[in-house]
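Predict structure. Chain length: 317.
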Amino acid sequence: MRYLLALCAVVGVSMIVIIIACTPRQEPLNIAVNPYLGFQPFFVASTALQCPDCPESSDYIGGRSFSINLVTSMNVVNNLFYAGELDASFMSLEEALELYAHTQGGVCIAKVLGPATGTRAIMMRAGEQKQPAFLGYEQSPFNAFLLAEAVPALNWQPGQTHFHFISLTKHPQALLSGEVDAVLAIEPYLSQLKSNGAVVVFDDKSLSTETYDVFVVTKSAYEVHEELINWLATDYWDSGVKALNSGGADVVKAVEANAGVAELDLASAVQSVPYLTLQQPSVPYPELSDLIAEALPRITQAQPALTLGACKDVVKR
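Prediction complete.
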């Protein structure tokens, strides 16, 4: 009898081992992040994160539940989404609306980061305030909206400025070298250009409206990784914000490496991004539906009939 019990126990353990061994492991969540300072918490969170409650990674290929990749162009991010090679990224709400339309409603919003007012500005070299012949900027729907309001506000004549698409990391060099006469820059390149004598001629604080930044994931990824994504959007994100505000040497070094800048005054730059400060907003953020309704008129390619929503509300379980 004892022999039979022992044999059954061995067979039972063996079956468990076989089941565990045969359970397919999941691909890590693939996340793309561009060098904009507002998205840097995802890169520096690991420097401050205490991980007793980190999601279990043993079920994932390579033992990592997610991977974060630096991608310097939103065009590349969009193409990766279209090809099904990307699960999540950060972007403005306007960019999210266009992505939603181009993926036939395949994405949702995992987190509203907050307003991005104070992070974008048209900059020129000191002493050169006339209408620029060439202006460099990264192609995006909100940048196009900003330029459309800036031209008449600055009394620039339509058609006399040529606009060139230049990736974020190349903005400082393009302006300071004379390749272009102005750039529509974003943090931390705003801070770098200011430290090199460039001046702001128009910024997003002068606009008739403001944009919000969001964390976007595919619906298919949220169905599989809901717990992980919710953790990334809360505990992991919060630890990254705290790390940026700590201003430690390792954090500064990481941000400088990601952005391709040197001698960055990180403490000052962080204060330019409203949702990176540790202060709570004086009033709650508007409802997502209200933010979307306000952003839709700024979109030329999105289909207004489509409704982008929060993942927790639109993904079926």
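Summary: The chain has two domains: 29-116+212-314, 120-206.
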